[in-house]
Structures are given as structure tokens and as C-alpha cells.
Amino acid sequence: MIGVAQDETIVIPGLEPSEIETLREILGTIGFLKSYMNDQMIHDLSEALSTTFKLVNILLSTDLIEIMERAMQDPDLDRALLDPIGVMEKYTSGELDEEAEEYMERGMGIMMALLIALGKASTHL
Asked: Which residues pair with 3 in a beta bridge?
């Protein structure tokens, strides 16, 4: 049987006082959310989530995520984050080997295509 002590402490057999306090906090949070949520808030939230899910769907239907994942794990990127000026000096001084130059050209090609696609998309706003 649930009871309330004289100091308003709730007693539920089988539950520790810390568990009861956690339940009290959860119920308080639910009450706050209930009073905070209204139709406009739900509508705004659904629009934001809808847009986010559309973007995720588009990204997952291309190889861009896999390419970005591999790129983010490249040790050369870590070195560039630690010493960006040194890396930039190396790249601009012509010290790139043939393989690195090919990779840079491929990366620049992808970035240029992305910029062109962004420019095209912005004309439809």
C-alpha cells in the first residue's frame, strides 16, 4: 500500500527512497513538458524533424557519407588539424607527390561539383 508520511515523504513498498525521488523527478519533467507543448510547438518540431530526416535520407542515398567517413579517419587530416599552417605551406610550396596531387584534384573536383549544385539549388528559393 502506498502511503504518505507526515513529512510528505512518499512510501512505496519495494522501492528505495532514491528510486521514489527519481520517479518524482520524472513525473515533474513530464508535467513540465505537458504544459510546455502546444499545437504550434509540435508543428514547428515536426517541420524541423521532417527537414532533418529528408537531409539524412538524401545523404544516405549517396556515397558522400562513406567518403566523408573515410576522409575524417585519414591520419593526414589529424596532422593538418595540429599544424594547419605547416600543412598549407607544404601544399602551396609544390612539395606534393604525384599521388597526393591526384587526391587533391579529386577532392577539389568533388568540392567544385558540390558548390555548383548548391548554386543551382539556391536559384530555386
From this structure: 11
The Cβ of residue 79 has, within 10 Å, a number of other Cβ atoms equal to 13
| Segment 34-52, tens digit of pLDDT | 877 788 888 888 999 999 9
> Which residues, including other chains, have CB under 8 Å from residue 13's CB and lie 6 or more apart?
1
pTM above 0.70? no
Distances (CA, A) of 23 to 1, 4, 6, 10, 34: 17, 15, 20, 11, 16
pLDDT at residue number 5: 53
Domains of the chain, by residue range, sit at: 3-36, 74-125
